[in-house]
Design goal:
The chain is of the alpha+beta class. The protein contains ten helices and 15 strands. The strands form two sheets. Strands 1, 2, 3, 4, 5, 8, 14 and 15 form an eight-stranded mixed β-sheet that branches. The structure holds coenzyme A. Coenzyme A binds next to strand 3, helix 2 and helix 3.
Length: about 350
C-alpha cells in the first residue's frame, strides 16, 4: 500500500491523495486509495485520478461513511475521477453522486486459443491432479488439430509480422504515436511508465509480463501488446496498441505469442474502435461483473469516454493497484497476519470527517 498509494511517481500532483474516513474518536473506519494520472484531452493536459481499494469497516456500513469518502474523492482537484473494476455497491453510490458507468469500457473481449486445455483448466479445480496430468497430452493433441483446421473458428493465422521485446523508451514512443485517434489519452514519462510496469511485473502471482512491439516487413511499428498469463492459463491483456490497418496483424501475433507462452485463452478490455476486427478474429464480448465509473464536471470529458473516444486500457486502470496475498511455500502451519504501521512515511492523507 505504501508503494502504490504513497510512493507513486505522480506524488507532485498536489491535492490528489488517498482518503481515510476518520471518526470523531480518531479511529479510521474507511479507506479510498486514489492515484493521480496525467492525461490529455484533444492535446490539452487534464488531471485524472483513479480510485481503488474502497472499503468501509463492516460496523460502519450503511452510514454516510462511504458516501463521504466518495464525495471527498469526486470533489478533489482532478478534472476526471475514474473508478475501475468497481462492484455494484460502488456503482450505485457513485451514481448517486453524479457519476456514470462507462458501459463500453466495462466490457471485455475473450478469445479461446487452446480449446481442450481451456476446458481442462476450467474443470481442473474439481479434478484430481493425476487425472488432469494424464489428460494434458490428449488436450495438446486436440488443440494442435483444432487450431489448424481450415474452417475452424478457433484457427490461428500464422503471424506475418515480427515481434520484438518492448522496452520502456520504445513503449513511450509507441504511446505517443499510435493512439492519436483518441481524444482522451494517458500521458507518461519514462519514470512513471517504468514504475507502473515494475509494480505489475513484481506481483509474483501474475506470471510473466510480456511486452511485445510488432513490426511489419518494412520494419515499421504496426502496434504492440502487453499481457500476462495467470497460473490458471488465462492471458490477461493489459494494453493493446494498433490502428485500423494493423489491428488484425497485431491480434494474430498476440494470439500466437500467448498460446506459445501457455495461455489457453486471452481476455482484455473492449476496444470500441476495433469491434469488427475482434469479431472477425472470433472473439466474444462479455461483462466480467465489474464496472468502469467516471465522474467529471466537464461533460465533454465524460462524453468522450462514453462514446469510446479514449485510450483507457487496463494499464491506466486498477490492475496495478490490486493486492494479492501471495501464498508462501511450504505454508507455515499457523501464521498470523501482522500489519506494521511504523513503516508508513509521514505523507498527509486527506481526511473525510465523520458526518456527526
Ligand atoms: C463498498 C462499500 C465501501 C460501500 O459502503 P456501504 O456503507 O455498504 O454503502 P451503502 O451502499 O450501504 O451506502 C451507505 C448509505 O448511504 C446512502 N446513500 C447513498 N448515496 C447517498 C447520497 N448521495 N446521499 C445520501 N445518502 C446516500 C445509502 O442509501 C446507504 O444507506 P442505507 O443503507 O440506509 O440505504 C462497503 O460495502 C464495503 O466496504 N464493501 C467491501 C469492499 C468492497 O466491496 N469495496 C468496493 C470495491 S469496488
Amino acid at each position: 500500500m505504501t508503494r502504490i498509494f504513497l510512493r507513486h511517481p505522480w506524488r507532485d500532483q498536489s491535492g490528489i491523495t488517498s482518503l481515510v474516513f476518520e471518526e470523531n474518536s480518531g479511529e479510521i473506519t474507511g479507506f479510498l486509495g486514489v492515484v493521480p494520472r496525467p492525461m490529455s484531452f484533444n492535446g490539452r493536459p487534464v488531471r485524472a485520478a483513479i480510485s481503488s481499494q474502497f472499503i468501509v469497516a463492516p460496523a460502519r456500513r450503511s452510514t454516510l461513511a462511504a458516501v463521504k469518502l466518495l464525495q471527498a474523492f469526486v470533489s478533489g482537484p482532478q478534472d476526471l475521477s475514474i473508478a475501475d473494476e468497481a462492484n455494484d455497491a460502488s456503482r450505485k453510490l457513485l451514481g448517486s453522486l453524479g457519476g456514470s458507468t462507462a458501459l463500453l469500457y466495462s466490457l471485455y473481449w475473450f478469445r479461446i486459443l487452446q480449446p481442450a486445455r481451456f476446458l481442462l483448466s476450467r474443470a481442473g479445480g474439481g479434478m484430481p491432479r493425476s487425472i488432469a496430468r494424464t489428460l494434458l497430452p490428449v488436450c495438446r493433441l486436440i488443440d494442435a488439430v483444432t487450431v489448424r483446421l481450415p474452417h475452424s473458428p478457433l484457427r490461428r493465422s500464422e503471424p506475418s509480422v515480427i515481434g520484438i521485446d518492448l522496452g520502456t523508451a520504445h513503449l513511450l514512443e509507441c504511446l505517443s504515436r499510435v493512439p492519436r485517434r483518441c481524444a482522451l489519452r494517458p500521458e507518461y514519462n519514462e519514470r512513471s511508465l517504468e514504475w507502473l510496469l515494475s509494480v505489475i511485473a513484481h506481483n509474483d502471482e501474475c506470471g510473466d509480463l510480456r511486452k511485445v512491439a510488432v513490426r511489419n516487413e518494412r520494419g515499421e511499428v504496426a502496434g504492440w501488446y502487453i499481457y500476462i498469463v495467470t497460473p490458471n492459463g488465462l492471458g490477461e491483456v493489459l494494453q493493446l496498441g494498433a490502428d485500423e490497418r494493423t489491428i488484425k496483424l497485431v491480434l494474430d501475433h498476440l494470439f500466437d505469442d500467448a498460446a506459445r507462452h501457455g495461455a489457453a485463452a486471452l481476455s482484455g478490455r473492449f476496444e470500441p474502435s476495433f469491434v469488427q476486427q475482434f469479431h472477425e478474429k472470433y472473439s466474444m464480448f462479455h461483462h466480467r461483473g465489474h464496472w468502469l465509473l467516471v465522474h467529471s464536471n466537464n461533460s465533454e470529458l465524460a462524453q468522450a469516454i462514453h462514446r469510446g473516444d479514449a485510450f483507457l486500457t487496463r494499464l491506466e486502470g486498477e490492475w496495478s493497484m490490486r493486492f494479492r496475498l501471495i501464498p508462501q511455500w511450504p505454508a507455515p502451519r499457523q501464521r498470523k497476519l501482522r500489519i506494521s504501521y511504523h513503516e508508513v512515511p509521514p505523507v498527509p492523507l486527506d481526511v473525510a470527517r465523520s458526518p456527526s
